[in-house]
Design a protein that fits this description.
Layout lengths: L9 H5 L4 H9 L6 E2 L11 H12 L12 H15 L8 E4 L1 H13 L5 E6 L4 H8 L3 E6 L10 H7 L4 E7 L11 H14 L2 E5 L25 E6 L12 E5 L2 H10 L9 H12 L3 H21 L6 E2 L7 E5 L7 H12 L1 E2 L1 E2 L10 E5 L4 H18 L2
Parallel strand pairs: 1-11, 3-4, 3-5, 5-6, 6-7
Antiparallel strand pairs: 2-8, 7-8, 9-10, 10-13, 12-13
Helix pairs in contact: 3-10, 4-10, 5-6, 5-9, 7-8, 11-13
């Protein structure tokens, strides 16, 4: 009998397995565990956004759309960035995508040839490596260090660039790290990017979830490299719309964007008009819901951080943006995966090993605070009690 594996591609057989999925598979045997893994808002999508979608459905807006997306949503995004970056964008600068994940994929698909190198920080969100491999690109990991606040340093980027480098993927505010890019580090990176003429795919899906009076800074704001930056964003985190799968790509270079539009034919053809209308109304509508959620995330950040820092051996990085906290656990003397398993089995708490996000994640855990106060406090309590029993 012929093995089914003979029909599987090399890509399928070698595609990187998510360390996040590994934890969820293991946790299935521990139904009482507190889930501090989910990078998903526990808020409902605001009612006015839901109503917009319902109204579009009632109006029969259920036919095919165009590849780059509903003009109303594209224009809403263009208006947002015209105001945010202080230069004129229109809908030809914007493509709507199936969440931020497809936005990254479409950006890579538009610029990569087989053999091109893509610089990916380490640690970083999990999808970038697999998407690069899918397109025949070569992932090149560049380390991020806690001593630099997990901000990519220009000299580390410079060292990683070769004649085959085509692009860098950069994520700030960062999942899993909780770090935010400041202008000084951004301008230093821009000099290297301009010198070597490489593209930037800037994943900015957490731009509105930022704390302590900080302001979001994008590499696309830097005039000297504005035509080399593709901003990927999403409504998932900002408006608690994860299941809606609405994202977008914004690029100053309209010719590049025009070529990206046609690539949607190969992936999804088009997105639903009724969800895109709701997306347009989310961006154009009242933003007090966004600020309310941000304030609640900031308070929950403090709940988690203040609890964890009192546990001997746990050294949390104080999250600057996103709803992820990265925790140094090197004092415990075991691997991140082993300690994550210990917390599941012995404390009944789900966490993610830092190595799910790259080799530089060894010695760290990620915990998300997009959760109820009760779950955060109970999770911290369980971890504290286990560590006290365990010693370190």
């Amino acid at each position: 009998m012929m093995s089914a594996n003979k029909f599987l591609s090399n890509l399928t057989m070698n595609y990187p397995v998510s360390g996040i999925r590994a934890m969820f598979d293991l946790a299935a045997d521990y139904p009482g565990a507190i889930n501090l893994c989910n990078g998903e808002p526990n808020f409902e999508t605001p009612e006015h956004i839901k109503e917009s979608c319902i109204q579009a459905l009632r109006e029969g807006r259920t036919k095919y759309g165009t590849e780059p997306g509903l003009p109303a949503m594209r224009q809403a995004v263009a208006n947002k960035y015209t105001k945010q970056f202080g230069r004129p964008y229109d809908m030809d600068n914007v493509m709507v995508t199936i969440g931020g994940v497809e936005g990254i994929f479409m950006a890579l698909m538009t610029i990569l040839n087989p053999g091109d190198e893509v610089i990916i920080p380490d640690p970083a969100y999990t999808c970038y490596v697999g998407q690069t491999l899918t397109l025949g690109g070569v992932p090149v990991r560049v380390p991020l260090y806690e001593e630099h606040g997990f901000r990519l340093q220009a000299e580390d980027l410079e060292k990683a660039i070769t004649p085959k480098t085509k692009a860098i993927v950069i994520t700030y505010p960062s999942n899993p790290l909780g770090a935010v890019l400041d202008r000084a580090d951004g301008e230093a990176l821009a000099k290297v990017i301009e010198k070597h003429n490489i593209m930037v795919i800037s994943d900015e899906v957490y731009e509105k979830i930022i704390f302590d009076g900080r302001e979001h800074f994008s590499l696309a704001q830097i005039e000297s490299i504005k035509d080399k930056v593709l901003v990927v964003n999403s409504l998932s985190k900002t408006y608690a719309m994860t299941g809606w799968r609405l994202g977008y790509v914004v690029g100053w270079d309209k010719d590049l964007m025009k070529h990206m539009f046609k690539m949607q034919q190969a992936v999804a053809s088009c997105l639903p008009i009724f969800t895109m209308q709701a997306g347009a109304d989310a961006i154009n509508g009242p933003q007090d819901c966004v600020e309310d959620m941000r304030r609640q995330y900031e308070r929950r950040r403090d709940l988690l951080y203040n609890g964890l820092k009192e546990i001997p051996g746990m050294k949390p990085f104080r999250t600057e943006g996103s709803f992820c906290t990265f925790i140094n656990i090197k004092d415990f003397g075991v691997s991140s995966w082993e300690f994550s398993k210990e917390l599941l089995v012995n404390a009944g708490v789900m966490t993610i090993a830092g190595t799910a996000f790259g080799e530089m994640g060894e010695g760290y855990l990620r915990i998300c605070f997009a959760n109820s106060d009760e779950n955060i406090l109970e999770g911290v309590k369980r971890i504290k009690e286990y560590v006290e029993r365990r010693g370190h």
